[in-house]
Design goal:
Number of helices: 2
Distance between the termini: 60 Å
Number of strands: 0
Helix content: 40-55%
Radius of gyration: 34 Å
Structural class: mainly alpha
Largest sheet: none
Strand content: under 5%
């Protein structure tokens, strides 16, 4: 896997120094983990040819961070005061008149759908 090149940090400050230290600690831990994985692969490759008991034994568990990571606390940047957005609330409009036949048809359709759903649910339930 090819990772992109990170830009160079030109001005080092106490905050960037702590970030650098944290990143170096992570890199050391990852390098150690890679060496451990390479060793485990080598042992598995050797044991598969010799048929030794090492292949059937559970590998010992190791911590990924042999070197405990530093207590990294990123610098909290103070945000400039942000003024709240203006909100416009419009008055509600009067409800429109619904055609009585459309209202009745909608209610009948809703009633039929609810009846079918109730029949399906009651046929599944163990009373």
């Amino acid at each position: 896997m090819i990772l992109p090149v990170m830009p160079e940090i030109i001005h080092e400050s106490p905050a960037t120094a702590s970030v650098r230290q944290h990143l170096c600690a992570i890199r050391q831990s990852l390098e150690k983990a890679c060496r451990d994985i390479d060793e485990q692969i080598r042992v598995l490759d050797q044991s598969s040819f010799t048929g030794s008991q090492a292949a059937t034994e559970a590998p010992e568990t190791r911590s990924l961070f042999e070197i405990p990571p530093s207590s990294f606390q990123p610098e909290i940047m103070q945000l400039e005061s942000i003024e709240p957005e203006t909100t416009i609330v419009m008055a509600a409009s009067e409800p429109s008149v619904i055609d009585p036949q459309l209202e009745q048809a909608t209610l009948e359709e809703l009633n039929q759908a609810l009846s079918r759903a109730f029949v399906q649910m009651s046929s599944r339930a163990q009373w």
